[in-house]
Amino acid sequence: MTLSLDGQDIGQIVQVAATVGSIVATLVIGFIVYLMVRPSKAERARRKALPPAADPSESEDMRRAMDRIEGRLEVLERALADQIEPPRPGADDEDRLFAPADRGRDSGRE
Fold first, then answer.
1. d(CA 107, CA 96)
2. What pTM value is reported for the model?
3. Which of 60, 57, 35, 39 is nearest to 48 (CA)?
4. Tens digit of pLDDT for each residue in 31-86?
5. Contact between 104 and 98 (Cβ < 8 Å)
6. Which pLDDT value is given to residue 87?
7. Looking only at Cα atoms, what is the longest distance across the chain?
């Protein structure tokens, strides 16, 4: 059995070897970076053992902020409702297509 290689075959072998080598090198470098940045076993065990404590003052601040936002939203809704005029009874379809959502043809509020 005779094995013959020409320049084109050698070029393809080199190209495949370079592709495989670069993939393997990327995986090895990624694994090394992962090992460098992950926390130590003691740190991971400490994080598992201690559940995150909910700060009561923080949750109260969040509740107050949500109440303020809801109040402002109600004021905004009332202000917009005062500015919106209902569509005219004899308006054509184009006017109803561009009507506000709360008074449109699909809202059930007509």
1. 12
2. 0.40
3. 39
4. 999 999 998 888 888 888 877 666 777 788 888 999 999 999 998 888 887 776 66
5. no
6. 54
7. 95
Is the Cβ–Cβ distance between 103 and 87 less than 8 Å?
yes
* HEC assignment per residue over the chain: CCCCCCHHHHHHHHHHHHHHHHHHHHHHHHHHHHHHHCCCHHHHHHHHHCCCCCCHHHHHHHHHHHHHHHHHHHHHHHHHHHHCCCCCCCCCHHHHHCCCHHHCCCCCCC
- pLDDT at position 80 is 82
Closest CA to 110 of 79, 75, 82, 91: 91
Please name which of 90, 88, 91, 86 lies closest in space to residue 103, comparing C-alpha atoms: 86
Which residue type does 15 have? Q
